[in-house]
Amino acid sequence: DEKTHARPPRSGNGSDQENTKKTLKDENEALKKNFTGEFETVQRFIIYKQLQWSLYSNLLKVHTCPKCEEGWELHGGKCYYFSTSKSTWDQSRDDCRRGGGDLVKIDSREEQLRLRQKMDYDEDKFWIGLTDSKEEDKWLWVDDSPLNTSLTFWSGKDPDNWTGTNPEGEDCARMGERGGADDLKCWFDRSCKDPQKSICEKSAETGRVTRV
């Protein structure tokens, strides 16, 4: 008799593997989509914050607003004090230092012009921070910097170190005297012991936040 052999059952391993691969592929695609979406969200958030900060920066600006104490005048980022009392050059310098500054150092033609415009009367004569008391004819500012010979405003034949009233001569600089000086050339050497008004100078205070 012919023996009947039972056909072995078909294995399902192949289809299971295909299903698993498909599932993994679908999950991978879903993860990629989620990641891409989250990345784009982060990018949009960063751009939004950058725009927000840019707008805020335009609304809030920090300005350096120079200001001076009461009695001092603001010009070009510096504070000036024009004394009304008269003192020797050394005493005037001490007074300026007590106020946080020093006798004025003139650094430009524009500064000379600003100061000159404050002198309306013949009695407006002021000590400035220039002297050759350490060495004759070697003029130094109060910060010990030498006078720039291309930026001087001596009047006429000054400095002449005249000894007519003081045998020690004239070793300190004064500006003013409209009646005897033309244009901006209004510096004169005078005896440091003569009582004169004075001009003090110091840096303006800064650092105020202003909304615009």
Automatic annotation (TrEMBL):
Stretch list, region Disordered: 1-27
UniProt keyword terms in alphabetical order: Lectin
Basic and acidic residues biased stretches: 18-27
Record has DNA damage as a keyword: no
GO molecular function: carbohydrate binding
Keyword Magnesium: no
Record Gene3D superfamilies: Mannose-Binding Protein A, subunit A
Top-rank lineage group of the source organism: Eukaryota
Residue ranges occupied by any C-type lectin domain in the UniProt entry: 75-201
CDD domains according to UniProt: CLECT_DC-SIGN_like
Protein name: C-type lectin domain-containing protein
Gene source species: Anabas testudineus (Climbing perch)
Taxonomic lineage: Eukaryota, Metazoa, Chordata, Craniata, Vertebrata
